[in-house]
Amino acid sequence: MPHQIGFVDNSTMLAHYKMLETIKDFAAANGWTVLRYDDTVANRELILKGPGLSGVEEIFVGFRTYQDAGADYYNLLGGVFTGYVPANSFDTQPGAVRVGCPAHNNRIDYWLTLNAQRIVLAMKVGTPVYEHLYLGKFFPYSRPSQYPYPVLAGGMLVGAAAARFSETTHDFYLRGGSARGRVRTPGGWQNASFYPYGNAFLCGASGQLRDTNDQYPLLPVEVYDSANIYGQLDGICHISGFNNAVENTLTVGGHDYVVMQSVSRTSHIDYYALRLDPNT
Q: Looking at the DSSP assignment, which residues form a beta bridge with residue 250?
């Protein structure tokens, strides 16, 4: 499954509308089924179904725009669902969990990567700042019979928060312990935490990781709570921000990665590496 790097602008429509259309076209061309695409309303909607890595699963994710010209925000809402009902609205799909992501009405540079079980989007907007979404499955540490639908909705805002990209307190879902990142456990949806970001010795004031001779180790990002470790994110790795910079690229194990940061933060704990799924 592939990746796409590019930009959208407001030459034909508002840029966040064009971003939604770009996601739709890219997903449809690469194995996802478009269940709904409504570009006739102000809050445009896209709902997709992925077949999973087995090819026989049903993974339901969606994107919806929301905006306020007076408040000057033009955002995307990411959703993960447990099913699809054509008569239901985006927000009332079965098991709907939603996370917000600031976008823009002007130019958006983007990194969009997907496979059959999840879609990941990073955007550079505004001043600039970097905004992120992870929607779909991760790799569970359980058998399918034990944990049949391990999905995550990861974003930058809690629900459809009325926040512009210039708002200074929003943060990426990897910080953990917030409704910006929601995991569906066997017992239902709950806020997720993420290793190593939640480890004070690796990602805190008392310690940090750094490069060794300009080589940066990538650590898997694991999803957990106070009592359980659920699994590992697909294509998202921890990387240190020590002497590092956003949009740097690296190759590890034959895979290409691009370095991303949370909004405009630049400390060593504010970065991750996004795998660019190969265009094969």
A: 257
Among all chains, which residue has been given the structure tokens 């970065």?
A: 271
Q: Which residues contact 56 (CB under 8 A, 6 or more apart)?
A: none
Residues 242-260 have pLDDT tens digits of 999 999 999 998 999 999 9
Sorted by where each begins, the domain ranges of the chain are 3-275
From the list 234, 261, 26, the residue with the least C-alpha distance to 124 is 261
Q: Measured at the alpha carbon of residue 166, what is the angle toward residues 21 and 91, in degrees to the nearest 5? A: 45
> What CA–CA distance (Å, rounded) separates 39 from 12?
13
Report the distance separating Cα 74 and Cα 151, nearest Å.
26
Per-chain mean pLDDT for the chain: 96
- What is the rounded distance in angstroms from the CA atom of residue 102 to the CA atom of residue 124? 10
pTM of the model: 0.97
Across the range 129-135, mean pLDDT stands at: 98
Provide the token pair at 229: 């470790």
Which residue shows structure tokens 């049949």?
148
